[in-house]
Amino acid sequence: SGQHRVPRVTAQLLAPVEDPQKVICVGLNYHDHCQEQGVKVPKEPLIFSKFPSAITGPFDDIVHPQDTTPLLSPQELDWEVELAAVIGKRGRHIEEAVALEHVLGFTVANDVSARDWQMRRNGRQWLLGKTFDTFCPLGPAIVTREAVADVHNLWIRCSVNGHRMQDSNTCHLIFGVPTLVAWVSRFMTLVPGDILLTGTPAGVGVFQKPPVFLKCGDEVQCEIEELGTICNRVV
User: Fold this and answer.
1) What is the mean pLDDT of the chain?
2) What's the number of domains the chain is made of?
3) Which of 6, 11, 110, 154 is the most buried (most CB within 10 A)?
4) Which residues pair with residue 50 across a beta bridge?
5) Which residues form the signal peptide (predicted)?
C-alpha cells in the first residue's frame, strides 16, 4: 500500500539474522585468494566457524578489541568481503542437485579477522582470531534466491577508506554454494537461519606488500552485485 514505509534516514538496519544457531565459514575458496598466498587449491572445502555473537549490523561499528592485558589485544585486523548464504530449509545429507532448495537467500558479510590470533596465536587455530564481538558485519538484507539471476556470477568488492582492495567475481569460487551446502550437511544438520560464509577473494590486508591492517577510524565498505552494500567504521 505504501502507507507503512519508514524513511531510511530515520531507521537503523540490524543484521538480517542476529542469532543463528550456526555461522559456518569457508577458507581458501577463491582461486585468486589461493594464488595471492601461494597455496594449492584445496581438494575439499576448508570449514571453520564464528560464534553468532560476532554478528553486527550492516552499518554498525567494528570494535577494535582492547584487552586490559595488552598481550591479549589483537593488532592485525583485516577485512574479508564474502557472499553469505542463509539456510531456509532444514536438511542433513543434502544432495548437491537439490542443495539450493535449502537456501532462503543471500547477503553480504565481512569476515573480520585478527591475523595475529588466527595465524600465530592459540596454536594457530582460527576460531579466536575470527570471532571477536562485531567481527561479522552482515546485511543489508536477505535477497531471496529467486531474485538473484546467477549467484555464481556476481562482482564482489571491498574498499577501505575509499581505496579498492578486493575486486573479484563469485565465478572464481572453488566450491560453489550447492557444493558447500551438500558438504557441510554431511557433518551437521542445517536449520533455517544458519549462515554460510563462502570465502573471500584476493586483496586482503595481510597479503599486501607490505601488509596493511585496519586501525581505529578506518571505514570498510563491502559490496556484492545485486545484494547491496555494508559499511562499517573501526572504533
Assistant:
1) 96
2) 1
3) 110
4) 23
5) none
